[in-house]
Specification:
The protein is built from four helices and 31 strands. The chain has about 400 residues and is mostly beta strands. The strands form eight sheets. The protein has a five-stranded mixed sheet with strand order 2-28-27-26-25, covered by helices on one side. The longest helix is centred in the first third of the chain and has 18 residues, at about 10-25.
Length: about 400
């Protein structure tokens, strides 16, 4: 008989951490989410173009893992797991060129890069496989600098965990803000090692100058040793996750999505505040819980059920616009055709709201335009979609 043990103590720690935040939020005399939404302005997002629509005759084909960045001219920088480079599109959606290619040389990538557009439209690309940052000049996109960041990855011998670069959050005067995540080593770790998301500041030479500017429990995970030399790891469905974003004026916005409570601080920590918004929890149905558990051995299901959330996260995505406002995609019941996005200011007031198809995930918001990724409902193909925002 298969013998399994599920290790979930770190989930209990994460739950306690979030519960304390929620308790603090509950002590405020907030108005209800329903009243806040009624007072908010309704935004209209009108599609202006899409990229990757084969039915419309588009010859651009994307792979999975789409991501989008935008510069001051409205040009898009699109990456996906289908190619190792960065495709650049005009502000009307026309393909202009590709930056980089697969390889080991300057300006080349071993893995699809993570892109950030900095001041003066300089393009920064993080290759997490090669562990290096490449800087591309604006306009001609020539490779002007390659920075080795391999020394920033660490191994914790006590807990047998490895910390790896996950995202390039942004670029500041002091250097590069890179999000790292802990990963336990199966069969070597005690499977209960603490796992965190940590934001590190790397200097212009790629060395760590501050290793825990932000630190939070990472995405809720289940770890199990299934007997012998086997182990398993799975994301907890409807589990809570950590979000970090950098605003145009270099303020960090971060939090876990058990509640809408976003911490705001400067890089040096001198400026701090908390943005709280009431929300109405969306329950997870018993059918949803049973469907997920049915894929696992019977003897593990009871303990696994004990760590499954009874509600969905408060939000599923966090995007900052260039007016220092927070855009949040709220969780919706299973099968929802549309989902609600809210726009929140630093005082925690919902200034605006809109509904978008559930397939749309906004990635960047600049000026009066929002850019997102989607999946074509008929073809199943990944798309990039641009919207014009009007009150």
């Amino acid at each position: 008989m298969l013998s399994s043990t599920v290790y979930s103590k770190k989930l209990l720690r994460s739950t306690l951490f979030v519960s304390l935040l929620v308790l603090g939020a509950c002590q405020r005399p907030d108005v209800s989410n329903e009243i806040s939404l009624d007072r908010a302005a309704e935004l209209t997002l009108t599609e202006v173009f899409r990229i990757g629509d084969e039915v419309a005759g588009d010859t651009v084909l994307f792979g999975d893992g789409l991501d989008v960045a935008v510069d001051s001219r409205g040009q898009l920088y699109v990456t996906d797991r289908g190619i190792a480079g960065i495709r650049v599109f005009s502000n009307t959606g026309a393909l202009m060129r590709t930056i980089g290619r697969a390889g080991d040389g300057p300006g080349e990538f071993q893995r699809t890069p993570l892109v950030h557009v900095g001041s003066q439209d300089t393009v920064y690309a993080l290759d997490t496989e090669a562990m290096r940052l490449t800087v591309f000049a604006p306009n001609d996109f020539t490779s002007v600098e390659t920075i080795d960041i391999s020394s920033a990855e660490t191994f914790d011998a006590e807990f047998q965990t490895f910390q790896f670069a996950q995202y390039l959050i942004g670029v500041v005067n002091e250097g590069f803000l890179v999000r790292y995540e802990d990963l336990i080593i199966p069969l070597m770790s005690d499977m209960d090692a603490p796992e965190h998301v940590a934001l590190k500041l790397l200097d212009r030479k790629g060395n760590v100058s501050a290793d825990t500017i932000v630190q939070m429990p990472k995405r809720d995970m289940l770890h199990a040793r299934t007997g012998g030399q086997s182990s398993m790891m799975a994301k907890v469905p409807f589990g809570r996750d950590a979000f970090i974003a950098l605003s145009p004026d270099n303020l960090l916005y971060y939090g876990r999505n058990d509640a809408i409570e976003i911490q705001v601080r400067s890089i040096d920590g001198n400026t701090r505040r908390s943005v709280r918004v009431p929300h109405d929890p969306v329950p997870v149905t018993e059918e949803e819980r049973n469907n997920w558990l049915s894929a696992y051995p019977d003897e593990t299901q009871h303990e696994m059920r004990s760590v499954l959330p009874k509600t969905r996260p408060a939000y599923e995505a966090l995007v900052l616009d260039d007016s220092e406002r927070i855009w949040l995609r709220l969780s919706a019941p299973k099968g929802s055709v549309e989902v609600r996005w809210i726009v929140v200011n630093l005082e925690g007031r919902i200034q605006a709201t809109t509904k978008l198809p559930s397939t749309i995930w906004l990635k960047a918001i600049a000026g009066n335009r929002a850019f997102g990724t989607s999946i074509d409902e008929e073809q199943g193909a990944p798309l990039v979609v641009a919207y014009e925002i009007t009150p």
